[in-house]
DNA sequence: ACTATTTGACAAATAAACTTTACATTTAGT
DNA sequence: ACTAAATGTAAAGTTTATTTGTCAAATAGT
C-alpha cells in the first residue's frame, strides 16, 4: 500500500509532530507511515482523509502485493 | 466506525462466504465486521471498496467516538 | 559554526486485526 | 416438519498497528 501523506502534509505545510497531534497519534506513527513501514488502521486513514479534506483513495492506493 | 458492508453485499446479492473469498479473508472476518465487532484494516477496507466499486467513505464512516 | 527543529530509526510493550476450528441459530425451499 | 444454506458466536493463536522512550542524522536559521 502506498500513501501520499508526506505530500498532503507538504500542501498543508505542517510537521509530522503537528499532523500527529491533529490525527491524535504519536509522531512515530506518522513517521513510520510516511516511510511505508506499516499501514495505518482504517480509523486513522479516515481521520487523515478528514484532516486533509480528501478522499481516502486520494491518499492510499492498493498495490498488487496487497492482494496476495 | 460504522460500515454498510451488509447493504453493499445485499446490492450485489452475495453471501458472506462469497464476499470473504473475493476479499481474501475468512468468512468470520466479514461476519464480525458486519456486526461491528471490529474495524477492518485499511488494506481490507480498500479491497472492499474496490470489490463494491465505491469510495471507502461510502462504506465506512467515522463516528465521534473514533476521535477519542 | 552553533543551535533548534525536524525527521529517521530502533526496541520493548500493548492493543487490535485476523485466522482457524468448531458449534448453535436462523432463514428459505420443498 | 425436514433439510440445506447462511449467519451468528466463541476460544485460542498469530500477526500487525500503535505507543513510549530514546538517540542519531539531517535541515534551516542566525
From TrEMBL, chains A, B:
Task: Supply the name of the protein.
Answer: Transcriptional regulator
Q: DNA-binding among the record's keywords? A: yes
Q: Does the keyword DNA-binding apply?
A: yes
Q: Which UniProt keywords apply?
A: DNA-binding
- Please name the GO terms that the record assigns under molecular function: DNA binding
Task: Give the highest taxon in the source lineage.
Answer: Bacteria
Identify the Pfam families for this entry.
Answer: HTH_3
Q: Which SMART domains match?
A: HTH_XRE
Q: What region holds the HTH cro/C1-type domain?
A: 5-59
